[in-house]
Amino acid sequence: MNLKFTFFSFFIVLYSFSQTNINGIITSKNIPLEGASVYLNNTTIGTITDEKGAFELNFKEGNYTLVVSFLGYKTYQKSINTIDQKNIEITISLEEDNEFLDEVEIKKIVYDDEWKYNLARFKQAFLGKTKLASTCKILNEKDLFFDFNYKTNTLSATARKPLKIKHNGLGYLIEYDLINFELGSKTLFFSGYAQYKNLRKSIRKKWKKNRHVAYNGSRMHFLRSLLNKELKKDGFVINKFRRVANKERPSEEKIRFAREYLKLHGNRINYSRKIEEPKTTLDSAIVIANKARLPKYRDYLYKRDVPINEMISFQKTTPFLDFTDYLMIIYTKEPEEENYVQGIFGKKRKQSDVQTSHLVLLQGKSEIDKMGIMIDPNAVFNEGYWSFESFANMLPLNYQPSKK
Predict the structure, then answer these.
(1) Res 14: pLDDT
(2) Same domain, 88 and 235
(3) Burial class of 193 by CB neighbour count within 10 A (0 to 12, 13 to 18, 19+)
(4) For residue range 70-101, what is the model confidence (pLDDT) as tens digits?
(5) Taking burial as the number of CB atoms within 10 A of a residue's CB, which of 36, 212, 350, 398 is the most buried?
């Protein structure tokens, strides 16, 4: 699945982080807005504007997205690179969201069986199927609106208000401004702005443990290890493979013709009979229909233990994720979850002692922030274990793993 879909204490040995300050005023039509949410996307760094519309944020330098949201107004977002800016002053004027107000009036959500079914599909795809996903609760489910396109077999979702997600497993209260959600038969894409808050001032021992488990083997962990040149030490083994069309599988045109032809014969066809050499059009159609079950592509592993210089390049001092074909990323220090190997109708394969993910670049090389985050997270496509670990296993960008 495609999940559309990071600073840390041990990086201090490589990078010297200094403090950055942002002071600002949020207004609309020159009137200060009190109570607007101002935060750095996907972090625990955020605040609320006071009666004068003023706010202040303090954080370590890096690349961020500043987000300002207020009900009834268009969400404001701005990329901020604080490497060369230590003190930033900004005034932001929000625009009224007339489309949002129209939608609130027009869309009448019916909480029927279809809505409940779509909600279950949404939660399973968005939150995921991991153990941590079972500890998440969306507190305002009834703000979700679903639309299913029967032609494309795609489920889309919108939310009238930011989703409030209580994550009892990681100890966060997350406010997620859902921008887009599309679930296809084999792909998932979602995007939005997330603000994390700790459920308590003191972090429980189980939350620290779960956060560390969620971090281990994640894409965030991989990128930081890649920049720090500690992949093997951290438990990563990287291989390369090519993906080519499966020549044994018939073309899509032949498959469509075979299926249409077979429909004319109703349910009287014996698909299990062996046909070594087709003698009739019906025989050929059966053979093609059976071969349509073959995978579209074949993967060919051609290089083990890929060196770091074949995965990363630099423009001056700026690092880029840069590689050809597909990366097979194996994390050796944790086994797969049982939920990952669970198959259809309760069948499952043997649980592996390692976690294997696939990564491909969609737009050529893509910039990595020096602290280990993708500047454009949609520039890569995830398969395997990373696609299994959905929103419930994501951590705020300013998560700092223990040195232990």
Answers:
(1) 34
(2) no
(3) buried
(4) 888 888 988 887 766 778 889 999 998 876 54
(5) 36
